[in-house]
Amino acid sequence: MADKLRIVVVEPNNGGGLVHFAYQMCGALSDQGLDVTLLVGTEYELADRPHNFRVAKVLQLWQAFDPASMKLEHKGFLQRMFGKIHWQLRRVVRAMRLVLAWMKIVSFVTRAKPDIVQFTRIEHPIEELFIAYLRRRGFALTQLCHEFENREAKDFISSFVSRLSGIVYQNFSGIFFLSEKLRLRFLELHPSIPPAHTHAIPHGNSDWLLSLPSTPTADLRKRLGLTESERVILFFGLLSPSKGLEDLFEAFALMQKEVSTRLVVAGYPTKHVSMEKYLDRNRELGISERVIFDARYVPLADIRPLMEVASLVVYPYRSGTQSGALQTAYTFGRPVVATSVGGLAEVVEEGKSGFIVPPQSPRELAERISQLVRDPALADEMGRYARRLAETRFSWKTVADLMMPVFEEVVTRE
To answer: How far is Cα of residue 336 from the mean position of the Cα atoms in its chain?
Structure first.
């Protein structure tokens, strides 16, 4: 194509994994010759990072990670009651702000007139109306579909709403999924979508983290109360019911009979989890003194030292699609133990970069974790292989090379 293909990538969040993904994807697409604009919130977390694409900070939304959720404290009845009232009122205010933000998105896209508009995860039904409007205006739309099922709610109503919301996908001329298994699952749920409009790509690495200034590892060990010689098992990522932390705690309790180590759980607690229940469960299992919670949105400067203190990183998910947190472990050369949910088994090369176990199988989880803890040489070998995968199979150039033909085909077809 003589002229640069112009694409606007819409990522309403201000920070977190989806923003990090969009930042790296936009950089890779720009390297491929696309004219890229990233449309984000006004509090864009990566504003001070180098960019080879344009950034439009126009969406006035809210802080994604509420400091109040990070407090490990027991709450009384009145605190819980007023907390629920506050949460309901906040939902109303946020709904109004979301509508205003999407009005700005439509206005921006209408004025910019890009060749393609790419969206990320669709989280609220109201968003579907604006997407349909843009489609009717003649814009070519694509999506990077991180999630298409509600992982935290499994009731009939949630399943019905999920399927009903599937109508939004008819507006996209191309939909990207982060594994082939996820693409096939999506088509099973939404048979009206043409298979030719769906495409599997890998989740790119987290190499951008390697260039960030970081907290000294010794300082992090001191803050967490870790000695220099202690071997550490790390869970890293958002804390939610689907992440299977209960299974990890049970596996860790089983391990204590054979190996002595510490478990660090680092990540932001979502509204779906109760930190009190986690603490109570660890007391019941007798592992409270061996488990360290770093319950917060982990600052970028602390990610490297967290990975460096870890002997391995565990992803005991009960359900899931892909994991940016797992790519972070690969980036820093750490072996992983993960469950066979979503597309994780397509990412973990069994016995080479880590181990795959069935979900909700604490005993098998404990056996594989123990194997790596007892054999540091094997863990180091797997970590080196994981790093090679990050540099090759999961490089962002690899991702962009797969996306480019789709964009060109979409523009030609439209």
So the answer is: 16
Q: What is the pLDDT of residues 397-409, one digit of tens each?
A: 999 999 999 999 9
Alpha-carbon 206 to chain mean position: 11
| Of 394, 398, 408, the residue nearest 34 (C-alpha) | 408
Domain contains 377:
yes
In this structure, are residues 287 and 253 in contact, taking their beta carbons and an 8 Å threshold? yes
10 Å Cβ neighbour count for 94? 14
Structure tokens at 268: 């932001």
CA distance 9 to 29: 11
* C-alpha span between 129 and 266 (Å, rounded): 37
Q: Are residues 379 and 402 in the same domain?
A: no
Q: Is 403 within 8 Å of 176 (Cβ atoms)?
A: yes
> What are the pLDDT digits (tens) for 270-297?
888 889 999 999 999 999 999 999 999 9
Structural domain including 50 reads 6-204+395-409
* Torsion 80-245-253-308 (CA) sign: negative
CA dihedral for 115, 192, 164, 274, sign (positive or negative): negative
Residue 17 included in any domain: yes
Distance CA 81, CA 78 (A): 5
Residue 54 in contact with residue 38, Cβ under 8 Å? yes
For residues 328 and 367, membership in a common domain is answered with: yes
Distance from the Cα of residue 197 to its chain's centroid: 23
* Mean pLDDT in residue range 55-77: 65
pLDDT at 157 over 60: no
H-helix or E-strand spanning residue 327: helix 324-331
Would you tell me the crossing angle of helices 17-31 and 324-331 to the nearest 10 degrees?
Answer: 70
61 three-state secondary structure: coil
- Is residue 263 within 8 Å of 291, Cβ to Cβ? yes
User: Do the bridges between strand 232-236 and strand 291-295 make them parallel or antiparallel, or are there none, so unpaired?
Assistant: unpaired
Within-domain flag for 414: no
Domain check: are 147 and 256 in the same one?
Answer: no
The answer to whether residue 1 is domain-embedded is: no
| Vertex 200 angle, CA 199 and 205, to 5° | 135
Q: What is the mean pLDDT of the chain?
A: 89
Stretch (H or E) spanning 88: helix 77-112
How many domains is the chain partitioned into structurally?
Answer: 2
